[in-house]
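ARCHIVE CARD
CATEGORY: sequence design from structure
SOURCE FIELD: tokenized fold
FIELD CONTENT:
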């Protein structure tokens, strides 16, 4: 039986798709399985520097895994498009770089964001601004974050970054770099644009509760929908208006 090049490409993309689903599922399992440590409920909120540093380390791990769980699904269209373009360029004499190099660059940026978020969580907890070690901020700060996230939905930066995230082929054609280092840099740049789209909304984890799985799932689905819905600008502005209203309500209640 003869296997055509196109069939091989299709199989590779299917395998990568399965791998992305598997990695995402493992990341979510970290939070869904209590024994994994992802289900911490704030019991670490005890005095003592050693416990405090242990909590910071646990927060870093938790946020890093959270970034994989929440952001990898939305990056899948870009990753699969990268695989297809890389195969075609390799057939024309370009470098054959594994897709995981691109993915590693993308996730490195988001893990870095997760480290900063973990540090922010630790500082908020140390300042008694969180309801618990894994809880949420008070109404004034929470309302401020909601208003900030809502206002950002109307910004030019949000629109510019979303343009890059919603058009994988256009991004790859303008940003293409050969070799492993090139794939790594492309992954980092895509991650940077993705953070430009989502950073304000991601901070809403401090509003809904750092370990609120329903909040995590809602944001994950929204990030994916922003890249797939037919009228993303309208959806973004409606979302922004609702967030601003919610922020005002939270602050005055």
């Amino acid at each position: 039986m003869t296997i055509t090049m196109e069939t091989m490409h299709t199989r590779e993309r299917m395998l990568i798709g399965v791998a992305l689903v598997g990695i995402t599922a493992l990341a979510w399992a970290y939070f869904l399985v209590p024994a994994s440590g992802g289900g911490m409920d704030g019991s670490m909120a005890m005095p003592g520097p050693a416990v405090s540093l242990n909590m910071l380390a646990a927060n870093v791990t938790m946020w890093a895994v959270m970034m994989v769980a929440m952001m990898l699904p939305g990056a899948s269209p870009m990753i699969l498009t990268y695989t297809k373009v890389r195969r075609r360029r390799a057939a024309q004499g370009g470098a054959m770089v594994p897709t995981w190099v691109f993915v590693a660059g993308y996730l490195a940026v988001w893990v870095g964001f997760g480290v900063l978020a973990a540090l922010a969580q630790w500082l908020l907890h140390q300042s008694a601004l969180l309801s618990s070690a894994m809880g949420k901020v008070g109404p004034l700060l929470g309302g401020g974050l909601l208003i900030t996230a809502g206002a950002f939905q109307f910004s030019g930066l949000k629109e510019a970054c979303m343009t890059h995230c919603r058009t994988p082929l256009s991004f790859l054609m303008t940003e293409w770099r050969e070799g492993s280092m090139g794939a790594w840099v492309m992954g980092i740049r895509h991650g940077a644009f993705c953070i430009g789209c989502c950073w304000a909304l991601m901070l809403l984890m401090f509003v809904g509760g750092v370990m609120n799985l329903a909040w995590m799932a809602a944001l994950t689905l929204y990030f994916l929908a922003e890249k797939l819905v037919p009228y993303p600008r309208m959806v973004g502005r409606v979302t922004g208006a609702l967030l601003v209203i919610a922020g005002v309500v939270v602050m005055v209640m």
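CARD ANNOTATION: The CA atoms of residues 87 and 204 lie 38 Å apart. The radius of gyration is 20 Å.
SHELF: design records, drawer C
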